[in-house]
Amino acid sequence: MSTLPLKLTALLFTPGSRPERFEKALASGADGIIVDLEDAVPVMDKDRVRVEVMKYFNTNIRVGMAPFVTAIRINSLRSDAGREDLMAIKKAGIVPDVVVLPKVESADEVKFAVTHLDRSVRLICLIETVQGVRRCASIVESSPSVAALAFGGYDLSAETGGEPTWDALLWPRTQVVHACTASSAVALDQPYINLDNTAGLEEECARVRALGFVGKLAIHPKQVATIKAGFLPTAAQIDRAARIIRAYDAAKGNVANIDGQMIDVPMYRSAQRIMQRAGQ
């Protein structure tokens, strides 16, 4: 169990069927691992892999040391496999830092998960269906255990029959960010599936960061460094934010300005967020 707040900028998915890769996630530089029992495991293997993953965590407790985040993605709680995953975690007494709930569509799913997990376990709810987008505000507000909402545009596009383009997914992405901003959770973006297009990953990180996302899920170790760099503010942004904070604090409620621009409360808060992202 890690101390809060969890750092979730770059979480790396690793198939639950490949326990030999779990420790390798540490070397990737990721903020944590998501041991995947859902998409990465074929239906016919789910029972076997579930047992193997529970045995791994009974022996090893977690992957790496805190603050490295240990997370498990279970199957949808609207499926038998998902409920069995949850009950297996409960029965085994496993306490990961995070349980990732896929395709969440209601606050009831969150509440059901919370009742069967240790109180210290945080939740990341994947918003990747039409109903999930429509109800993302009630989902994120359903429990203080919800640490983040993670957007999933590929499943959403498959459901709507649309294409997972930037323009087509802009509105649902924005809904996720706004829901998180109104609560104490953070917004994470979907994986970038073109593993060989580093420039494309950099561009998408920049665009979702501009919307208010604070991190992006990774599906390959080579994506981690690009994602982490993509959510760090630039040196110029850090310098300007520091000057805004100093000027605002020195003014003590009076008018302050930087480079001829008046500094107000929203600019001050934005500067504070930049410094937080920079770790300062």
Runs with pLDDT <50, length 5+?
none
How many discrete structural domains? 2
- Classified by CATH, the class of the largest domain is Alpha Beta
Can you give the helix content as a percent range?
Answer: 40-55%
The total count of strands amounts to 10
Mean pLDDT: 93
Shape field:
globular
User: Within the CATH hierarchy, at the fold level, what is the topology of the largest domain?
Assistant: TIM Barrel
Task: State the major sheet.
Answer: 8 strands, parallel
CATH architecture of the largest domain: Alpha-Beta Barrel
Number of helical runs? 12
What is the straight-line distance between the termini?
Answer: 24 Å
Q: Write the element-wise H/E pattern from the N-terminal end onward.
A: EHEHEHEHEHHEHHEHEHHEEH
The percentage of residues in β strands lies in: 15-25%
CATH superfamily of the largest domain: Phosphoenolpyruvate-binding domains
| Strand arrangement, major sheet | 1-2-3-4-5-6-7-8
Structural class: alpha/beta
Q: Rounded to an integer, what's the Rg over CA atoms?
A: 20 Å
